Amino acid sequence: MQKFYAVKNGRQTGIFMTWDECKDKVTGYKGAVFKSFSNIDDAKKFLGCDDFSDDMENQKDKEEQMYHTKEEDIFKDLRKDDMIAYIDGSYEDSSKYFSYAGVMFYDNVSEDFAFASNDQDLISMRNVAGEVKASMYVIEKAVEYNLSKVIIYYDYTGIENWAVGNWKTNNNLTKLYRKFCEDMSQKIKIEFVKVKSHTNIKYNEYVDKLAKKAIQDKINLL
C-alpha cells in the first residue's frame, strides 16, 4: 500500500512518497514533526494545506536533476591520485546482523569490499551503522593508498552531515565518526555526493547488493 509521509517540521517540509525521502528530512533534526498516512488528503490536512501537488512535482524534477548525473560523467575528471567510492549499509532483523559494502575506483583499479557484523554496541543503529563504517573504511583506504582526494557517493544523508558537523552526534559511533573525519581531513581531501537510493543508479545498486549478500553469506556460515 502506498504511504504518504508528511513532514510538518524538519530540514524540508512537505509530503514525500517514500520513507527514505522522509528520513533524510527528519533524522537528527531537533523537534522534527512528521507522520505517515495511507492517503494524500489526510497528509495535506496534517500539514494544514490543501494543495501540495505543484510543490511535489517541482521537488521531483529537482531531485531527478540532482541525483541522476550520468555515471560515466563522474569518471571523466578522475585524477590518478583521486578515489571515487560508492558505499552502502544493510541490516537483517531476524539475524541481528548489519553490513557495510562499497566499490572504490582509483588509479585504473576497481576494488570491492563487504563485511557483516553483529557488534552489540552498534546493532541498535541497524543499517546506519554499516553506512558509517563503510565511509570510514574508504577514507582509511584512500589515506593508506597515499591518494590526495576521496569522493564518497552515499544515499543516507547522515554520512555527510555527521562528518561535516551539520548534525549533532548523540552516540559513540557518530562521535567517533565525526572525530575520525576531522582528523582524516588533515591528511586527505574528503568530498561527499548524495545519490538517491533505489533509483537504478548503477554503482549504488551494486553496493546495495554487496551489503545484502555479506549478511546472507554470514548467516549461511552459522
UniProtKB/TrEMBL annotation:
Q: Which coenzymes or cofactors are required?
A: Mg(2+)
> Signal peptide position in this chain?
none
Q: Which UniProt keywords apply?
A: Endonuclease, Hydrolase, Magnesium, Metal-binding, Nuclease
Please list the reactions this protein catalyses.
Endonucleolytic cleavage to 5'-phosphomonoester
Assigned EC number: 3.1.26.4
One GO process term, biological-process aspect: DNA replication, removal of RNA primer
Residues of the RNase H type-1 domain: 79-216
Entry's Pfam families? Answer: Cauli_VI (PF01693), RNase_H (PF00075)
Question: Under the GO molecular function aspect, what terms does this record hold?
Answer: metal ion binding; nucleic acid binding; RNA-DNA hybrid ribonuclease activity
The family annotation for this protein states: Belongs to the RNase H family.
* Cross-referenced PANTHER family: RIBONUCLEASE H1
Q: What is this protein called?
A: ribonuclease H
What is the native source organism of this protein?
A: Peptoanaerobacter stomatis
